[in-house]
Specification:
The protein is of the alpha+beta class. It contains one helix and five strands. The protein has a three-stranded antiparallel beta sheet, with no helix packed on it. The longest helix has 17 residues. The protein binds zinc ion.
Length: 86
């Protein structure tokens, strides 16, 4: 039952997004390698929790990017260097 409630609130967020009330379509993280702030596009179709590896465009080190989007459409993005990742 709890899961059904969660799915419902995610769905209502999606509706708001489709109506243009959630505008955030990009986010940024700070590269651990060089300290630069890197802006990345948010692909919301990939889900509320995303994780992927991207090379920093400044220092070319591989960052593991973590993205979490909450029910209000607020994205949390953080990164860590791939070599530190277990
Ligand atoms: Zn970098």
């Amino acid at each position: 039952m709890r899961q059904a409630v969660g799915q419902f609130s995610s769905f209502s967020w999606l509706l708001r997004f489709l109506h243009g009330e959630v505008m955030q379509d990009e986010a940024s993280y700070t590269c651990d390698g060089c300290g630069e702030e890197i802006v990345i596009p948010l692909d919301l179709s990939q889900g509320m929790h995303q994780e992927y590896v991207e090379d920093c465009p400044v220092c070319c080190r591989a960052n593991v990017i973590h993205i979490e989007i909450d029910e209000d459409g607020e994205a949390s993005v953080w990164a860590e260097l791939e070599q530190d990742y277990p």
